[in-house]
């Protein structure tokens, strides 16, 4: 890829479009305005408007601009671009020019959309799409574990199962990387990413009126919610998912170290590391999400609340959670 012109104001205003990224656009109707830098004049002008048809000759010319490092899009159009690129995460491993915050947002959008697809149709194809994106994220973090601080900064407070799943994944990964000092294996990261994402898929089998209930849950409602563990286990069994880390996240994220959790009332020694991590990440993500029956807590207050409940949660993990949230706030 050609070098971006050495112009600070240009780089602040525009994002370079490489040949790889250009190839991922629809050929005839690029999703963003295309800008071309003229080295002789030292300025940039609009070459093609988003959504308008680009002729065959125009495509060839745009390709030449990209090869020469002269093709750009406005950073103000980043949201449109991020939505597009979130469908092709592999490009994040080979492309330069993105800020860590931009990459983090693309990952969030990608996993939110993948989870929405999976939850709507939990089939092998949608699971494999998740696994593929999980492998990209694992590679990204394996290269530089410190990048996770930017990822946790993208957490959303939206009330949806997909967003909750992604928030849980981001927090759980941050805890795991802190716990291990960043010394991880990519295969283990992929398994943990999937386990954190899929921990709550059984909730799709709980009636929506119970999940959204604003008043106190009666015993029958609570029992229905507790059955989401078995529902999720059956769902993964149908998909032939047998990875122990994924299953531990699903089966143990509501277990508590004092034996008060469910479904098996396990005590601390009977809960796996993945289960303990998922329990803290799941509870934290639930606290910071807006729900029909209560307003969200801010991240610092949620972390403080969990740290004060050392009987139910691993105190080492809740202490790390406070550190992770401080790092996220300054990322």
Automatic annotation (TrEMBL):
PROSITE patterns the record matches? HD_GYP
Domain HD-GYP, first and last residues per copy: 137-331
Q: PANTHER family annotated for this entry? A: CYCLIC DI-GMP PHOSPHODIESTERASE PA4108, CYCLIC DI-GMP PHOSPHODIESTERASE PA4108-RELATED
Protein name per UniProt: HD-GYP domain-containing protein (C-di-GMP phosphodiesterase class II)
Q: Which organism is it from?
A: Pseudodesulfovibrio indicus
């Amino acid at each position: 890829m050609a070098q971006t012109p050495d112009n600070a104001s240009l780089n602040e205003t525009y994002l370079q479009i490489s040949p790889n990224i250009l190839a991922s656009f629809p050929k005839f109707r690029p999703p963003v305005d295309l800008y071309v830098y003229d080295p002789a004049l030292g300025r940039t002008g609009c070459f093609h408007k988003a959504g308008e048809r680009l002729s065959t000759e125009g495509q060839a010319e745009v390709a030449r601009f990209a090869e020469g490092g002269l093709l750009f899009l406005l950073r103000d159009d980043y949201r449109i671009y991020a939505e597009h690129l979130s469908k092709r995460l592999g490009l994040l491993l080979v492309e330069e020019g993105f800020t860590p915050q931009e990459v983090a947002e693309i990952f969030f959008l990608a996993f939110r959309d993948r989870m929405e697809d999976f939850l709507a149709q939990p089939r092998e194809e949608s699971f494999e799409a998740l696994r593929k994106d999980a492998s990209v994220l694992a590679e990204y973090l394996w290269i530089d574990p410190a990048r996770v601080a930017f990822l946790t900064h993208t957490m959303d407070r939206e009330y949806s199962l997909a967003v909750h799943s992604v928030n849980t994944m981001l927090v759980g990964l941050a805890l795991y990387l802190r716990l291990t000092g960043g010394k991880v294996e990519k295969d283990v990261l992929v398994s943990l990413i999937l386990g954190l994402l899929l921990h709550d898929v059984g909730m799709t089998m709980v009636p929506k009126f119970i999940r959204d209930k604003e008043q106190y849950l009666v015993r029958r409602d609570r029992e229905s919610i507790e059955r989401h563990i078995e529902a999720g286990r059956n769902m993964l069994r149908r998909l032939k998912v047998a990875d122990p880390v994924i299953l531990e996240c699903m089966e143990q994220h509501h277990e508590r170290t004092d034996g008060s959790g469910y479904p098996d009332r396990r005590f601390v020694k009977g809960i796996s590391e993945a289960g303990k991590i998922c329990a803290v990440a799941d509870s934290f993500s639930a606290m910071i999400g807006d729900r029909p029956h209560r307003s969200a807590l801010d991240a610092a207050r949620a972390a403080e609340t969990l740290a004060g409940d050392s009987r139910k949660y691993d105190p080492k993990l809740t202490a790390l959670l406070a550190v992770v949230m401080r790092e996220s706030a300054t990322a």
